[in-house]
Protein backbone atom coordinates (compact mmCIF):
# COMPACT_ATOMS: atom_id res chain seq x y z
CA UNK A 1 0.00 0.00 0.00
CA UNK A 2 1.23 3.48 -0.92
CA UNK A 3 1.04 6.57 1.25
CA UNK A 4 1.01 9.73 -0.89
CA UNK A 5 2.32 12.83 0.86
CA UNK A 6 1.94 16.10 -1.10
CA UNK A 7 4.73 18.33 0.22
CA UNK A 8 5.44 20.77 -2.60
CA UNK A 9 3.73 23.83 -1.10
CA UNK A 10 5.72 26.88 -0.04
CA UNK A 11 4.01 27.29 3.35
CA UNK A 12 3.35 31.00 2.84
CA UNK A 13 1.02 31.21 5.86
CA UNK A 14 3.83 30.42 8.30
CA UNK A 15 6.89 31.96 6.64
CA UNK A 16 9.64 32.95 7.11
CA UNK A 17 11.18 29.59 7.97
CA UNK A 18 14.69 28.35 7.27
CA UNK A 19 13.37 24.97 6.18
CA UNK A 20 10.36 23.30 4.55
CA UNK A 21 7.15 23.66 6.57
CA UNK A 22 6.80 19.86 6.63
CA UNK A 23 9.89 19.75 8.86
CA UNK A 24 8.52 22.21 11.40
CA UNK A 25 9.30 20.71 14.84
CA UNK A 26 6.12 19.90 16.76
CA UNK A 27 6.43 17.91 19.97
CA UNK A 28 9.16 15.33 20.40
CA UNK A 29 9.78 11.62 20.59
CA UNK A 30 12.09 9.15 22.26
CA UNK A 31 14.60 7.52 19.92
CA UNK A 32 17.13 5.02 21.31
CA UNK A 33 16.54 6.33 24.80
CA UNK A 34 16.97 10.00 23.89
CA UNK A 35 14.47 12.69 23.04
CA UNK A 36 14.57 14.43 19.69
CA UNK A 37 12.35 16.96 17.92
CA UNK A 38 9.57 15.53 15.78
CA UNK A 39 8.88 17.02 12.34
CA UNK A 40 5.18 17.67 11.83
CA UNK A 41 5.11 15.41 8.73
CA UNK A 42 6.24 12.45 10.83
CA UNK A 43 2.80 12.27 12.41
CA UNK A 44 1.25 11.62 9.00
CA UNK A 45 3.95 9.06 8.17
CA UNK A 46 3.22 7.20 11.40
CA UNK A 47 -0.51 7.21 10.73
CA UNK A 48 0.01 5.88 7.22
CA UNK A 49 2.20 3.06 8.50
CA UNK A 50 -0.41 2.33 11.16
CA UNK A 51 -3.00 2.18 8.35
CA UNK A 52 -1.03 -0.44 6.43
CA UNK A 53 1.23 1.58 4.10
CA UNK A 54 4.58 -0.05 3.34
CA UNK A 55 5.65 2.54 0.74
CA UNK A 56 5.60 6.31 1.08
CA UNK A 57 5.94 8.86 -1.72
CA UNK A 58 6.68 12.51 -1.00
CA UNK A 59 5.70 14.92 -3.76
CA UNK A 60 8.18 17.78 -3.40
CA UNK A 61 9.05 21.03 -5.16
CA UNK A 62 12.49 21.36 -6.81
CA UNK A 63 13.86 23.46 -3.94
CA UNK A 64 12.74 21.20 -1.08
CA UNK A 65 15.70 18.83 -0.95
CA UNK A 66 15.78 19.19 2.85
CA UNK A 67 12.83 16.77 3.01
CA UNK A 68 14.85 14.17 1.11
CA UNK A 69 17.84 14.78 3.37
CA UNK A 70 15.69 14.44 6.48
CA UNK A 71 13.88 11.23 5.58
CA UNK A 72 16.32 9.48 3.26
CA UNK A 73 15.11 6.18 1.83
CA UNK A 74 13.08 4.67 4.66
CA UNK A 75 10.77 5.54 7.51
CA UNK A 76 10.17 2.72 9.96
CA UNK A 77 9.47 -0.35 7.86
CA UNK A 78 8.34 1.67 4.84
CA UNK A 79 10.40 2.50 1.77
CA UNK A 80 10.32 6.12 0.55
CA UNK A 81 10.15 7.44 -3.01
CA UNK A 82 10.18 11.06 -4.16
CA UNK A 83 8.38 12.69 -7.07
CA UNK A 84 8.93 16.30 -8.14
CA UNK A 85 6.09 18.73 -8.84
CA UNK A 86 7.85 21.38 -10.96
CA UNK A 87 5.55 24.20 -9.87
CA UNK A 88 2.67 24.62 -7.43
CA UNK A 89 -0.33 23.43 -9.46
CA UNK A 90 -2.72 22.22 -6.80
CA UNK A 91 -3.43 19.07 -4.85
CA UNK A 92 -4.82 17.07 -7.78
CA UNK A 93 -1.68 17.66 -9.83
CA UNK A 94 0.51 16.64 -6.90
CA UNK A 95 -1.36 13.41 -6.18
CA UNK A 96 -1.55 12.29 -9.80
CA UNK A 97 2.22 12.63 -10.24
CA UNK A 98 2.45 9.45 -8.15
CA UNK A 99 -0.01 7.52 -10.35
CA UNK A 100 2.68 5.93 -12.59
CA UNK A 101 4.04 4.16 -9.49
CA UNK A 102 0.68 2.73 -8.39
CA UNK A 103 -0.80 -0.43 -9.87
CA UNK A 104 -4.60 -0.82 -10.09
CA UNK A 105 -4.51 -3.61 -7.50
CA UNK A 106 -2.75 -1.56 -4.83
CA UNK A 107 -4.40 0.80 -2.37
CA UNK A 108 -3.25 4.32 -1.61
CA UNK A 109 -3.60 6.54 1.43
CA UNK A 110 -3.48 10.33 1.02
CA UNK A 111 -2.99 12.90 3.75
CA UNK A 112 -1.65 16.39 4.35
CA UNK A 113 1.79 16.60 6.00
CA UNK A 114 1.17 19.88 7.84
CA UNK A 115 -1.71 18.49 9.92
CA UNK A 116 -2.00 16.47 13.11
CA UNK A 117 -5.12 14.48 13.85
CA UNK A 118 -6.49 11.92 16.27
CA UNK A 119 -6.91 9.05 16.59
CA UNK A 120 -3.61 7.86 15.18
CA UNK A 121 -5.37 4.68 14.01
CA UNK A 122 -7.85 6.63 11.86
CA UNK A 123 -6.83 5.14 8.51
CA UNK A 124 -7.77 1.68 9.82
CA UNK A 125 -11.43 2.67 9.77
CA UNK A 126 -11.42 3.23 5.99
CA UNK A 127 -12.66 0.26 3.92
CA UNK A 128 -10.87 -1.36 0.99
CA UNK A 129 -12.10 -1.24 -2.58
CA UNK A 130 -13.79 2.16 -2.53
CA UNK A 131 -12.90 5.85 -2.37
CA UNK A 132 -13.38 6.73 1.29
CA UNK A 133 -12.73 9.85 3.33
CA UNK A 134 -11.70 10.02 6.98
CA UNK A 135 -13.88 12.76 8.47
CA UNK A 136 -13.24 15.05 11.43
CA UNK A 137 -15.53 17.54 13.22
CA UNK A 138 -14.20 21.12 13.28
CA UNK A 139 -15.49 24.45 14.55
CA UNK A 140 -14.93 26.33 11.28
CA UNK A 141 -15.56 24.10 8.26
CA UNK A 142 -15.54 27.05 5.87
CA UNK A 143 -11.74 27.04 5.65
CA UNK A 144 -11.60 23.30 4.90
CA UNK A 145 -13.34 20.87 2.56
CA UNK A 146 -16.60 19.91 4.24
CA UNK A 147 -18.08 16.54 3.30
CA UNK A 148 -21.84 16.09 3.20
CA UNK A 149 -23.01 12.49 3.57
CA UNK A 150 -26.32 10.68 3.81
CA UNK A 151 -27.33 8.54 6.77
CA UNK A 152 -25.55 5.52 5.27
CA UNK A 153 -22.27 7.42 4.98
CA UNK A 154 -22.35 7.89 1.20
CA UNK A 155 -20.70 11.12 0.10
CA UNK A 156 -23.23 13.49 -1.49
CA UNK A 157 -20.98 16.51 -2.02
CA UNK A 158 -17.63 17.97 -1.04
CA UNK A 159 -17.98 21.66 -0.24
CA UNK A 160 -14.61 23.25 -0.96
CA UNK A 161 -13.99 26.14 1.44
CA UNK A 162 -17.60 27.27 1.18
CA UNK A 163 -18.91 30.01 3.43
CA UNK A 164 -22.29 28.24 3.58
CA UNK A 165 -20.95 24.79 4.48
CA UNK A 166 -23.86 22.56 5.50
CA UNK A 167 -21.81 20.31 7.79
CA UNK A 168 -18.90 20.68 10.20
CA UNK A 169 -17.35 17.35 9.12
CA UNK A 170 -14.28 17.79 6.93
CA UNK A 171 -11.94 15.27 5.32
CA UNK A 172 -8.47 14.89 6.78
CA UNK A 173 -7.28 11.94 4.73
CA UNK A 174 -8.60 9.43 2.24
CA UNK A 175 -8.04 5.98 0.82
CA UNK A 176 -8.77 4.33 -2.52
CA UNK A 177 -7.67 1.44 -4.71
CA UNK A 178 -5.21 2.20 -7.48
CA UNK A 179 -7.86 1.64 -10.14
CA UNK A 180 -9.93 4.54 -8.76
CA UNK A 181 -6.81 6.72 -8.59
CA UNK A 182 -6.37 6.08 -12.32
CA UNK A 183 -10.07 6.70 -12.99
CA UNK A 184 -9.82 10.07 -11.23
CA UNK A 185 -6.66 10.86 -13.20
CA UNK A 186 -8.47 10.12 -16.47
CA UNK A 187 -11.39 12.33 -15.40
CA UNK A 188 -9.02 15.14 -14.40
CA UNK A 189 -7.41 15.01 -17.82
CA UNK A 190 -10.84 14.92 -19.46
CA UNK A 191 -11.67 18.11 -17.56
CA UNK A 192 -8.49 19.73 -18.96
CA UNK A 193 -6.71 19.50 -15.61
CA UNK A 194 -8.73 22.44 -14.33
CA UNK A 195 -9.40 20.98 -10.88
CA UNK A 196 -6.99 22.34 -8.30
CA UNK A 197 -8.78 20.84 -5.31
CA UNK A 198 -9.65 17.19 -4.87
CA UNK A 199 -13.16 18.12 -3.78
CA UNK A 200 -14.27 19.58 -7.10
CA UNK A 201 -12.90 16.58 -8.97
CA UNK A 202 -14.65 14.14 -6.65
CA UNK A 203 -17.92 16.02 -7.15
CA UNK A 204 -17.53 15.50 -10.89
CA UNK A 205 -16.71 11.83 -10.24
CA UNK A 206 -19.91 11.45 -8.21
CA UNK A 207 -21.95 13.20 -10.92
CA UNK A 208 -20.73 10.60 -13.41
CA UNK A 209 -21.95 7.75 -11.21
CA UNK A 210 -18.92 7.22 -8.99
CA UNK A 211 -19.28 6.44 -5.30
CA UNK A 212 -17.44 7.53 -2.18
CA UNK A 213 -17.85 6.89 1.52
CA UNK A 214 -17.42 9.31 4.41
CA UNK A 215 -16.30 7.70 7.67
CA UNK A 216 -16.85 9.83 10.76
CA UNK A 217 -14.08 8.24 12.81
CA UNK A 218 -11.96 11.36 13.41
CA UNK A 219 -11.88 13.04 16.81
CA UNK A 220 -9.51 16.02 16.54
CA UNK A 221 -7.89 17.79 13.58
CA UNK A 222 -5.34 20.61 13.57
CA UNK A 223 -3.85 22.42 10.59
CA UNK A 224 -0.30 23.34 11.62
CA UNK A 225 0.17 25.70 8.66
CA UNK A 226 -0.53 28.81 10.76
CA UNK A 227 0.86 30.14 14.05
CA UNK A 228 -2.49 29.55 15.75
CA UNK A 229 -2.53 25.99 14.40
CA UNK A 230 1.05 25.41 15.54
CA UNK A 231 0.14 26.31 19.10
CA UNK A 232 -3.05 24.22 18.94
CA UNK A 233 -1.07 21.21 17.71
CA UNK A 234 1.28 21.34 20.68
CA UNK A 235 -1.70 21.66 23.02
CA UNK A 236 -3.36 18.66 21.36
CA UNK A 237 -0.22 16.53 21.76
CA UNK A 238 0.10 17.46 25.43
CA UNK A 239 -3.57 16.73 26.08
CA UNK A 240 -3.34 13.37 24.29
CA UNK A 241 -0.23 12.43 26.26
CA UNK A 242 -1.94 13.25 29.55
CA UNK A 243 -5.05 11.26 28.61
CA UNK A 244 -2.90 8.27 27.66
CA UNK A 245 -0.91 8.52 30.90
CA UNK A 246 2.36 9.29 29.12
CA UNK A 247 4.76 12.16 29.85
CA UNK A 248 3.95 15.27 27.87
CA UNK A 249 6.18 16.06 24.89
CA UNK A 250 9.38 17.88 25.78
CA UNK A 251 9.90 16.39 29.28
CA UNK A 252 12.32 13.51 28.67
CA UNK A 253 15.71 15.13 28.06
CA UNK A 254 18.41 15.18 30.73
CA UNK A 255 20.39 18.23 29.71
CA UNK A 256 23.36 17.34 31.91
CA UNK A 257 24.27 14.37 29.72
CA UNK A 258 26.39 15.06 26.61
CA UNK A 259 23.77 13.53 24.33
CA UNK A 260 21.11 15.63 25.99
CA UNK A 261 23.08 18.83 25.49
CA UNK A 262 23.62 18.01 21.81
CA UNK A 263 19.94 17.26 21.37
CA UNK A 264 18.86 20.49 23.00
CA UNK A 265 21.29 22.46 20.86
CA UNK A 266 19.93 20.77 17.73
CA UNK A 267 16.37 21.47 18.80
CA UNK A 268 17.12 25.16 19.45
CA UNK A 269 18.69 25.43 16.01
CA UNK A 270 15.62 23.94 14.35
CA UNK A 271 13.10 26.17 16.09
CA UNK A 272 15.11 29.43 16.11
CA UNK A 273 13.61 30.67 12.86
CA UNK A 274 10.09 29.85 13.99
CA UNK A 275 10.56 31.54 17.37
CA UNK A 276 11.51 34.72 15.56
CA UNK A 277 8.20 34.57 13.74
CA UNK A 278 6.27 34.08 16.99
CA UNK A 279 7.92 37.04 18.70
CA UNK A 280 6.88 39.23 15.82
CA UNK A 281 3.19 38.43 16.22
Written account of the structure:
By secondary structure, the chain is α/β, with parallel strands linked by helices. It has a single domain, classed as Spore Coat Polysaccharide Biosynthesis Protein SpsA, Chain A. Helix content is 31%, strand content 28%. Strands 5-6-4-1-7-12-9-13 form an 8-stranded mixed beta sheet. A two-stranded antiparallel ribbon has the order 2-3.
**How is the main sheet built?**
8 strands, mixed
Q: What is the CATH class designation?
A: Alpha Beta
**CATH-wise, what's the superfamily?**
Spore Coat Polysaccharide Biosynthesis Protein SpsA, Chain A
What is the H-and-E element order?
A: EEEHEHEEHEEEEEEHHEEHH
**Averaging pLDDT over every residue, what do you get?**
85
Shape: globular
Spatially, the strands of the biggest sheet line up as 5-6-4-1-7-12-9-13
Radius of gyration: 19 Å
CATH topology tier name? Spore Coat Polysaccharide Biosynthesis Protein SpsA, Chain A
Taken together, the total number of domains comes to 1
Give the CA-CA distance, first to last residue. Answer: 42 Å
State the helix count: 7
Structural class: alpha/beta
Helix content: 25-40%
Q: What proportion of the residues form beta strands (DSSP E)? A: 25-35%
What would you say the CATH architecture is?
A: Alpha-Beta Complex
Amino acid sequence: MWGIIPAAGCGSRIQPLAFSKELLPVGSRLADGSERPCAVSEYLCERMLEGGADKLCFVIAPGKSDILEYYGGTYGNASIAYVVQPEASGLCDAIFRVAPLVSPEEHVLVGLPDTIWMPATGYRSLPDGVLSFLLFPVDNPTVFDAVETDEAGNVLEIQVKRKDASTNWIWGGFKMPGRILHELLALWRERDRTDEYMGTLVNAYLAKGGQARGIKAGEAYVDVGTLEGYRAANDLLRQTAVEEGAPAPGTHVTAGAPAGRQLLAHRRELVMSFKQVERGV
